[in-house]
Amino acid sequence: MDLRHYEVFNKLCELKSFSKTAEALFISQSTVSSYINLIEKEMGIRLFKGNKKSTGELTEVGHIFLQYSSQIVALANESKKTIKNYNKGLSGSISIGISPTLCYYNIPKLLEKFNRKFPLVEIVLFAEISPKIIHMLNSKEIQIGIIRNSTDIVSDPKFNAKCIGIDNFVFVFSPNNKINRMNSIAIEDLIKEPLIAYGKNTNFWPQIQGLYNRFGVSPKIIMELNDIYAVKQMAKLGTGVAILPEISVQDELKQGLLVKADINDYVPIKRYSLLIYRKDQILTKQMQNFIRFMSASQ
């Protein structure tokens, strides 16, 4: 028996007529009869009572067989739909490594929109610093990375990269900090202040060091933290100044809990959000859909 036999049997049970079943399935009545006879022969059972085969009155074992037959056809149709959706990138999964800054602030909204468009695609997220994400891509632990970088390109020729966002790093401090009482703030004033250091183990820290080096000084690090939330809390308490992604302090700035330095003649440090993946990677439909979606959302 093949799937067609189960489909014919199910339709006959539904319509209770050989002629209507044949018409619905675009086959002859004799074909319907031969399918039913083959099922009965192979299973060694009688599906219909006495001479009531034409009315579709099932025997007790016929009712049992119908339950399984219905499940078999339903599962076959479900598998076809699932495979079809998978081939179109409408189902399946994607493993993605994302920089914590992006994971906590602007990326979640984009992922929620992607989920609405592709509800059957599972996204497996790993919140890691950018160097770790690159390592995971090289070891093929993940398929796609969304990293933070000092430029809009990656130096490693193994990767394709698409810039999906740019934002500034800003100096922030407590409203009670003495700097907030200055009529005018220069970068020289800020680099003398105690610094609550964030991201010393990331590829962002060299940009901070470069800023201080231009003035021939080293950062006066009073505290080193690897969590943005903790850095913001310490800055609000007046412990020192912090240099953080502007996207990460929007709420605190609006609420007046932190102040952003308006610095004279200062070009802020820029960070680029890059979507990267290996050039030698076979792009599944799910990956292609995700890359197109993120590129269009920048």
UniProtKB/TrEMBL annotation:
This is LysR family transcriptional regulator. Keywords: DNA-binding, Transcription, Transcription regulation. Gene3D superfamilies: 3.40.190.290, Winged helix-like DNA-binding domain superfamily/Winged helix DNA-binding domain. Residues 1-59 form the HTH lysR-type domain. Pfam families: HTH_1, LysR_substrate. The lineage of its organism: Bacteria, Bacillati, Bacillota, Bacilli, Bacillales. InterPro entries: LysR_HTH_N (IPR000847), LysR_subst-bd (IPR005119), WH-like_DNA-bd_sf (IPR036388), WH_DNA-bd_sf (IPR036390). Belongs to the LysR transcriptional regulatory family. Signal peptide: none annotated. The keyword DNA-binding applies. One of its GO terms (molecular function) is transcription cis-regulatory region binding.
